[in-house]
Amino acid sequence: MSDEDRLKALLDEASQRIAQRVAGLEAQLDALTRARRSESDDDEHDPEGVPLSAEWSRLSGLLESARRDALLAEEAHHRLIDGTYGVCAGCGKLIPVERLEVRPFADRCVACAR
Fold this sequence. Notes:
The chain is mostly helical. The chain contains four helices and no strands. The chain has helices at residues 3-38, 52-82, 97-102, 110-113.
């Protein structure tokens, strides 16, 4: 398998993991939203666990992060299609394969990312 094929497979796998993470977080947040509707507004003193509002805030942040990652994955796929995947957006040099193996969505080499 060529480096290009291996990197495309890594990119596809990472994209699938992110899509699953987004779907899972959306489902959790939806379930929590339904639970919040049935609870009183004053859940801050719940002795049996994390307040629903705190959990909602945590899940919302995780979902926002996962959606940003999904956008990065989409942008990387566009670069793959137009032939600029693996080319640093900063200096125009090739991004080392080892970096792309670790960060498949990277659009900059290590030097330009600093």
